[in-house]
Design brief:
With 254 residues, the chain is mainly α. It has one domain. It has 10 helices and no strands. Helix 2 packs across helix 3 and helix 3 runs antiparallel to helix 5. The protein is globular, with a radius of gyration of 19 Å.
């Protein structure tokens, strides 16, 4: 068995263990996966359909198409701070690459996203939305999000070893970023003075691309998609540089 095959098998085994352990002993099992986004959806639908109506057609499907990838991203980033600190035994093993923990966390989050997709499809059909060939873009969007998530997680996990405040800062940042990302509203409704926040945000570009292929049934705007892809690669490269340079100190620190 060559090294690449061994590494793939290791990731597959760790992802399976993480996924099985997470729902072991629960009555609903893997059905717990979409509970959080569904609960958030109910709150957002109540607020912005009943309390402060936004007058958006098929609002539950509109929100859910963006809420699922956001939940995947925020869950992975929120848990990334403790990946290296919380797995000291694995990190200190001579033949174990700690970056594996980051990849496993991201792939596990992706599986939770995939599990919840049938609910979104049912919701879209219920509201009369046609599932088109634009869904062929889904693997590309998921790949870009994986790259972005791994890059950001590498930065967070590495820095949190030396500065434990990082994981708390990330929690606050994710809360603020949720409102600065067009998950429950249209970006067109934002004032011109603040649209730059959405133009130069790879997360916002990804969210709008997901909504385009699911809710609107059109291909994503290619400039935004190229920007999101290029930015994700840069972030991932930057995160890996930080990780590799700090890795010897990380092993000593934990």
């Amino acid at each position: 068995m060559n090294s690449s095959t061994y590494y793939f098998d290791l990731i597959f085994h760790l992802v399976r263990c993480d996924f099985v352990t997470r729902y072991k002993g629960s009555v609903l099992g893997v059905l717990w996966s979409p509970v959080i986004p569904l609960a958030q959806l109910l709150v957002l639908v109540f607020l912005f359909q009943k309390v402060v109506p936004l007058d958006i057609d098929a609002y539950p499907a509109f929100v859910f198409s963006a809420l699922l990838p956001w939940t995947w991203l925020s869950t992975c980033l929120g848990s990334s701070g403790g990946l290296l600190v919380g797995n000291r035994g694995l990190v200190r093993r001579p033949n174990f690459a700690p970056v594996t923990l980051i990849i496993v966390n991201t792939v596990s989050g992706m599986l939770n996203y995939v599990v919840a997709l049938p609910i979104l499809f049912v919701m879209l059909i219920f509201y009369g939305k046609t599932l088109t060939l634009t869904l062929l873009m889904l693997p590309l969007l998921m790949l870009i999000q994986c790259v972005l998530t791994v890059g950001l997680s590498l930065i967070i996990a590495t820095l949190n070893v030396f500065y434990r405040d990082v994981q708390h800062i990330v929690g606050v940042a994710l809360m603020l970023l949720f409102y600065l990302t067009p998950v429950f509203y249209k970006p067109q409704a934002v004032s011109e003075d603040f649209r730059i926040l959405y133009t130069y945000s790879p997360i916002a570009a990804l969210i709008q691309s997901y909504r385009a292929i699911f809710f609107y049934g059109v291909f994503p705007e290619w400039r935004s998609l190229v920007f999101a892809g290029a930015t994700s690669l840069v972030v991932c490269g930057f995160g890996y540089v930080i990780y590799t340079r700090c890795l010897p100190d990380v092993v000593d620190a934990i």
